[in-house]
Amino acid sequence: MTIKKEALSNLIDNKKAAILKLLINSTDELYLKEISDKSQVPLASTFRILQELVSQEILERKEWKNSKTYKCKENDKMIFLRDLFYEEFDGLGEFVKSVRSFEEIQEIILHGTKKKSKANVLLIGNDINADKIDQVCNEIKEKGFEITFMPLTKEQYNQMAKMGLYSGEKIILK
């Protein structure tokens, strides 16, 4: 972060900054309770800050019946704030770090090219627990990055590679 950005972001209340960071880095519309939980800002403060950001036309509130969701508006104010608070999230790196300790995984291979918010991986090993991997993928997806994985034994992978099913760019991550 540049010195100017750091100085400006330090002038903003920590609670408001936490909420803005969360919403700017989220791809989904979020409910009040979700925003409060994920930003770790008390519910009453979150409500007050959201009302203020909506009135300043920084956030958009959608209402139907008893539900309200919030998301960033697409305007000049938000472009400026996005530049200030946007945090690049390395979803693939986070995935590798999270599953590296799983003993049943011998290799992690990036299959194809990593895109801005998506990657495909092959997990090579024996008795890989897909539910544990799904849990990690869901946590990463909440942060805006989607991992699609295929668990294979070493023998299955070698056989499929021989058949040409996994031709193309492969990068070994573990």
List the helices and strands and how they pair.
Layout: H1 3-11, H2 14-24, E1 30-31, H3 32-39, H4 43-55, E2 59-64, E3 67-72, H5 76-85, H6 91-99, E4 105-111, E5 118-125, H7 130-141, E6 146-152, H8 154-162, E7 170-172
Parallel strand pairs: 5-6
Antiparallel strand pairs: 1-3, 2-3, 4-5, 4-7
Helix pairs in contact: 2-3, 2-5, 3-4, 6-7
CATH homologous superfamily title of the largest domain: Winged helix-like DNA-binding domain superfamily/Winged helix DNA-binding domain
Backbone shape? elongated
Biggest sheet details: 4 strands, mixed
The number of helices is 8
Amount of helix: 40-55%
- Low-confidence residue ranges: none
Query: How do the SSEs run, as a string of H and E?
Result: HHEHHEEHHEEHEHE
- Domain module tally: 2
What separation lies between the terminal Cα atoms?
Answer: 30 Å
CATH 2nd-level architecture of the largest domain:
Orthogonal Bundle
Structural category is alpha+beta
In terms of DSSP E residues, the strand content is: 15-25%
CATH class descriptor name of the largest domain: Mainly Alpha
Strand line-up in the sheet with most strands: 6-5-4-7
